[in-house]
Design brief:
Chain A has helices at residues 3-32, 40-58, 61-85, 90-109, 134-138, 143-161, 163-173, 175-180, 185-211, 223-233, 238-252, 254-261, 269-288, 291-297; strands at residues 123-124, 140-141. Chain A has 310 residues and is mainly α. Chain A has one domain (3-297): ABC transporter involved in vitamin B12 uptake, BtuC, CATH 1.10.3470. In chain A, strands 1-2 form a two-stranded antiparallel sheet. Chain B is mainly α. Helix content of chain B is 69%, strand content 3%. Chain B has a two-stranded antiparallel sheet with strand order 1-2. In chain B, helix 1 runs antiparallel to helix 13, helix 3 (60-85) packs parallel to helix 7 and helix 4 packs across helix 11 (283-293). Chain B is globular. The chains are: A mainly alpha (310), B mainly alpha (356).
Chain lengths: 310, 356
């Protein structure tokens, strides 16, 4: 493989991993507060379709991203209302949100199926982009790729270095103790859920505006679920989310690896497309093999409703 | 938000009345939501309501279509309910449905151009086993490696969709089909007999009714069904009583998988009459909603399946007469489930007006 091919494979891997990073980090924050929102797929779909429509009408991809973010947040607000205010079952409600979001996005997106939005130019970082191989792959990317790194850094700081992050984690571990020392569990969980929804919306927007760039029904194709699996795989640690997302990004562009390797093997495209899903199962098996790995790392109150007494 | 006007107060015990009323409230809310949605879209809401909920069932043919669409939902939802009762979350019925359809189709194509009842019987067996094997993967991984069955069963939906796409593009493609990605049309001997002349309603409906009956007996009259209920409601109690958690997981997933597979068989051998890349009409996911709306109860599943089938038919009518995309059915289905989960709060809580 020559350096141009390596560089372009790296580039594609990073691009494919970016929406996973953004969505999974959002879910990580929600889950750290104890909220398990399985609706990521639906929120991403809504983010993707709304972002696409707004970009098409306004001509501004950034307004599109904002709108996609708002759509994702709105969806998560609905989820929050059912599980936090009305204390509904989180698993079932998240599932409902996924079905609802995917259906609604297909519904909204019908008129836009044959449209395309103009390609958004990559943002080239001077000097760094001139490094051979790595430069073009890492530093000549879409702005949202840099956003995903910034988000990662900000969340690491927030979770482990800030007081608010400590409170968030405390609420996820033991909502009743956090409540007893005066924190509003429900309000903070609402915040974390909204953040998760907003990030899922951005992740969806990345797909429809920058990645494809078009809208097709079902285009999220399980990325929301993979992001949720990624959080488990990462044992709720941001750095591992980053690594895992690129791992999956690599699996998603496995077609390129095959071409780049120069081997002449005939593999049905469906096999390559199935790889990310199979990889998800494999990593889940690896991480859950030892019962304690997941149990010790998962926020203790994950998925459980909380109702402040009195 | 409204803390000072309305608040929730825990009931001393959960309200049986509300647990039955809640699905009805959810249905009413869904219809109101539909009226609002039609208005937003600039359609006449009353007209939309008529086309969606009344038109599809205003003649015998419409009613037969309703039962036809409800059939796979009844079968799948009953299988899923058995697992859900024990908190085994098989949400991959869609994939198990597809694999059941694939296995049944393989039998039908193998016996192409031959006669005999054995073909249909083998198709039924193959369908059930196909779905069961697909569900056995999450069951095995859950019991052996403690892997989350929600994510695994769901990932396998995508794998099943890709697998069937590959099959109808390659190994199972119709050799005289001008390269269209679909199998041969099945012969008469591989098709389920119709029940009512000039309709598509077939024997699968009778099978669905017996599944509901057997499901009811299993859930409410068998010791194993009782064990699974206990495991779901009070896992500690179940553990102390010595009920095997692994067994519950296997039974929960395999019952859902085999039923979904059988439903896949009834689809390819009924209305489809062949295998295509789009075997399932989202039945696997719709059946989850059915199971919840039905309170995991077979009698409820009967009615909830009819309702969900009506949403499918309404969506088709809306497509035809109101120029709406067919995905409107999914919007209604999702709305229904969201409203249900929301209104369920009143089973355990009541609204209190004014400040305390």
């Amino acid at each position: 493989m020559d350096s141009v091919i390596i560089s372009s494979i790296l580039f594609a891997t990073i691009t494919a991993g970016t929406p996973l990073i953004i969505v999974a980090l959002g879910q990580l924050i929600a889950e750290k507060s104890g909220v398990l929102n399985l609706g990521a797929e639906g929120m991403m779909a809504m983010g993707a379709v709304v972002a696409f429509a707004v970009t098409l009408h306004t001509g501004s991809p950034w307004l599109g991203v904002l709108a996609g973010m708002a759509a994702g947040a709105l969806m998560s607000l609905l989820f929050g209302f059912v599980v936090l205010t009305l204390m509904g079952n989180q698993v079932a409600t998240g599932l409902a949100l996924s079905i609802f979001g995917v259906g609604l996005s297909a519904f909204i997106g019908k008129p836009y199926e044959s449209d395309i939005v103009p390609t958004v130019e990559a943002v080239r970082i001077p000097l760094l982009a001139d490094i051979p191989i790595i430069g073009p792959a890492f530093f000549n990317q879409q702005a949202l790729v840099y956003f995903s790194w910034t988000l990662f850094a900000a969340l690491v700081w927030f979770l482990y270095r800030s007081r608010s992050g400590l409170i968030l984690r405390a609420i996820g571990e033991s909502p009743s103790s956090a409540h007893s020392i005066g924190f509003s569990v429900i309000r903070i969980r609402y915040g974390a859920t909204l953040f998760g929804g907003a990030m899922a919306g951005i992740g969806g927007a990345f797909l429809s505006i920058f990645y494809t760039p078009l809208w097709v029904e079902g285009m999220v194709s399980g990325r929301g679920w993979i992001a949720i699996a990624l959080v488990v795989f990462a044992t709720w640690r941001p750095f591992r989310v980053l690594v895992g997302a690129y791992l999956f990004g690599g699996v998603m562009v496995s077609q390129l690896f095959l071409q780049g390797s120069g081997l002449d093997i005939e593999i049905p495209s469906q096999f390559l497309s199935a790889l990310p899903y199979i990889a998800t199962i494999v990593v889940l098996v690896i991480i859950s093999r030892d019962k304690n790995t997941v149990r010790l790392n998962a926020p203790a109150s994950l998925g459980q409703p909380y109702r402040p007494e009195g | 938000m409204f803390k000072n006007i309305v608040r929730l107060e825990a009931r001393a015990e959960s309200s049986a009345l509300m647990s039955y009323a809640s699905p009805l409230i959810a249905i009413a809310l869904m219809m109101v939501g539909g009226l609002i949605l039609f208005s937003i879209l600039g359609k006449n809401p009353i007209e939309g309501f008529r086309i969606f909920f009344i038109n599809p069932i205003s003649d015998i043919y419409g009613l037969s279509e309703l039962l036809l669409k409800a059939t796979p939902l009844m079968i799948i939802a009953t299988g899923l309910a058995i697992g859900f009762r024990a908190n085994v979350w098989n949400i991959g019925a869609e994939g198990q449905f597809i694999m059941g359809g694939v296995a049944a189709s393989a039998v039908a194509l193998y016996f192409y151009e031959s006669e005999g009842v054995h073909i249909l019987i083998l198709m039924v067996i193959a369908g059930g086993i196909g779905g069961m094997l697909w569900a056995a993967i999450p069951a095995f991984l859950k019991t052996r490696f403690n892997t989350n069955e929600i994510l695994v069963s769901l990932m396998l939906v995508y794998v099943a969709q890709l697998a069937v796409s590959w099959l109808v593009h390659g190994p199972m493609i119709d050799p005289d089909g001008f390269n269209f990605p679909q199998s041969r049309m099945f012969e008469e001997s591989a098709l389920l007999p119709t029940l009512v002349e000039d309709t598509r309603l077939n024997a699968a409906f009778m099978f669905a009714l017996s599944v509901l009956l057997v499901g009811y007996v299993f859930m409410y009259r068998s010791f194993l069904g009782f064990q699974m209920q206990v495991a779901g409601n009070a896992s500690d109690a179940a553990r102390y009583a010595g009920f095997s958690a692994k067994r519950m997981i296997w039974i929960g997933l395999l019952s859902g998988g085999s039923m979904a597979g059988l439903a896949g068989m009834t689809e390819v051998s009924g209305p489809m009459g062949q295998l295509t890349g789009h075997v399932s009409n989202n039945y696997g996911f719709a059946a989850i909603i059915v199971a919840f709306v039905a309170r995991l109860n077979p009698i409820g599943i009967f009615f909830a399946s009819l309702l969900m089938a009506l949403l499918y038919l309404g969506g088709e009518q809306g497509q035809q007469y109101m120029n709406l995309p067919s995905s409107i059915s999914n919007v209604f289905q999702g709305m229904l489930l969201m409203f249900l989960l929301g209104s369920d709060v009143f089973i355990n809580y009541r609204l209190k007006w004014g400040t305390k």
